[in-house]
Design a protein that fits this description.
The chain contains eight helices and no strands. By secondary structure, the protein is an all-alpha fold.
Length: 208
């Protein structure tokens, strides 16, 4: 279990690095307003999430973004070091690279906000997945008792599709530095995940 958790954490960390690199590309090359555009994106998504309300979900998303900032820039002392060095010998270098620091600050906040939304959607994945498994078991029982045909082709592709859809929803929702409404992005992947899971269970071999 710990091994699986560690792999998950490493995957999230790697995805965070990829997201920050893409944010940096947009800030330096694509967006004319640079970090102001990234800050505007965060403001837009705060409105989409409804963080200005007192809803528990909004508070959780806000708290996750704050915790990510604190762990990376406050508890490590990195933020204090960058601030003090701006008036020291490394001032010129820090000023020259400040766009990188500001992009990292804003990008991490956006990443944490979206990550919190995905965490909040996990119960929905579990609920829909449980329903898909139950329906798949019924289909498997009907095939076993009714003489339905086997299909290793469907089973093996559905088996591979289940984790793929889970990874895709994380990548598609976390990576693009454009406004993303989770109400439109996440549900299609939940449906695809449920269909793949249902097919995987229902087309499992009839005789164990």
């Amino acid at each position: 279990m710990l091994g699986g958790l560690w792999r998950w954490l490493r995957w999230v960390a790697a995805l965070c690095v990829v997201v920050l690199l893409i944010d940096l590309l947009f800030v330096i090359v694509i967006w004319d307003d640079g970090t102001q555009a990234l800050a505007g994106l965060i403001a837009t998504e705060r409105q989409i999430f409804g963080l200005d309300s007192s809803a528990a979900a909004g508070r959780f998303v806000d708290a996750t973004a704050t915790a990510a900032h604190d762990w990376v820039f406050v508890k490590t002392g990195l933020g204090t070091w960058l601030t003090t060095q701006r008036s020291g010998l490394l001032a010129a270098l820090i000023d020259g690279l400040w766009v990188l620091v500001e992009t990292a600050l804003l990008g991490l906040q956006l990443f944490a906000m979206r990550l919190a939304v995905l965490i909040l959607s996990l119960p929905l994945f579990v609920l829909v997945g449980t329903t898909a498994v139950a329906d798949g078991l019924y289909g498997w029982l009907m095939r076993r008792t009714g003489g339905g045909r086997e299909s290793g082709f469907i089973y093996h592709r559905a088996k591979r599709a289940v984790p793929v859809f889970l990874l895709l929803v994380w990548a598609v929702y976390l990576v693009p530095p454009v406004p993303m409404n989770p109400r439109w992005v996440i549900p299609p992947f939940i449906v695809a995940f449920a269909i793949a899971l249902r097919l995987r269970v229902s087309y499992f071999k009839k005789h164990l």
